[in-house]
UniProtKB/TrEMBL annotation:
This is Predicted DNA-binding transcriptional regulator YafY, contains an HTH and WYL domains. Keywords: DNA-binding. One of its GO terms (molecular function) is DNA binding. PANTHER family: PROTEIN PAFB (PTHR34580:SF3), PTHR34580. It comes from the Bacteria. It comes from Pseudomonas asturiensis. Residues 6-59 form the Helix-turn-helix type domain.
Length: 234
């Protein structure tokens, strides 16, 4: 392994460890000697990495340091390309535009010999077979990000005619379907609603008070299934 690549790998190992990690553990993970680890840590410190610790005590990388230039393996680049294709074809126009910008930034800092991998058409991700929802997913994402309440009207049979207030907590993509997990104010329950069943969705100016991450934790513990057209209030 080239030394430059080994330094990047060492940085990745540091980022995976939130607590102090011993030199022996680093050496085992990278398949090198303890002496090499000590030398590489000293090199990173000389480049500006804020690494606390000493030989025999362990090391801890403090956040905020990035090694220039950006380096990826060929498989990592292919994984990014596949993920970018999926996002651009299964989400919304704003996300698709963000994907193009992200790939352009990655391409700008890749070594010249790695750039063809970014444009390699080895993989293909198809668009969803079913018709996409008419709801603007970028607005749903905004509500999720900023914890805004949503006012929705459902199109399924026996659904209440009046709008319902929900707290959106997660947007899911399962095969060709999109689902919205939410806390419903009307009946104080968690629901998983198919986006195709939402006729209208408005982002309200009011934020819900509880932390979204905590709501997700509670919802996952309940293992709620998607709503159906059996007359349930979603």
């Amino acid at each position: 392994m080239a030394r430059s690549h080994r330094l990047f790998e060492l940085m990745q190992v540091f980022r995976r460890h939130r607590m102090t990690v011993s030199g022996e553990a680093l050496a085992r993970e990278l398949g090198v000697s303890l002496r090499t680890i000590r030398r590489d840590v000293a090199t990173l410190q000389g480049m500006g990495a804020d690494i606390d610790g000493e030989p025999g005590l362990g090391y801890l990388l403090k956040p905020g340091f990035v090694l220039p230039p950006l380096s990826f393996t060929e498989e990592e680049i292919q994984a990014l390309v596949i993920g970018a294709q999926w996002v651009s074809r299964h989400t919304d126009d704003q996300f698709a535009f963000a994907v193009k910008n992200a790939l352009a930034k990655i391409n700008a800092v890749l070594p010249p010999e790695m750039r063809p991998t970014l444009d390699d058409e080895t993989f293909y991700i198809s668009k969803p077979l079913s018709a996409s929802t008419s709801i603007d997913l970028s607005e749903i994402r905004r509500a999720l990000r900023d914890q805004y309440k949503l006012s929705i009207t459902l199109s399924i049979e026996h659904a209440p005619a009046d709008p319902q207030i929900i707290w959106p907590i997660m947007l899911g993509f399962i095969e060709d379907k999109r689902y919205l997990a939410a806390w419903c104010e009307g009946d104080s329950k968690y629901r998983v609603i198919a986006m195709d069943d939402i006729a209208n969705a408005d982002v309200l100016s009011e934020r819900y008070a509880r932390n979204r991450r905590q709501l997700i934790k509670e919802w996952r513990a309940l293992e709620i299934l998607p709503c159906t057209a059996r007359g349930e209030t979603c």
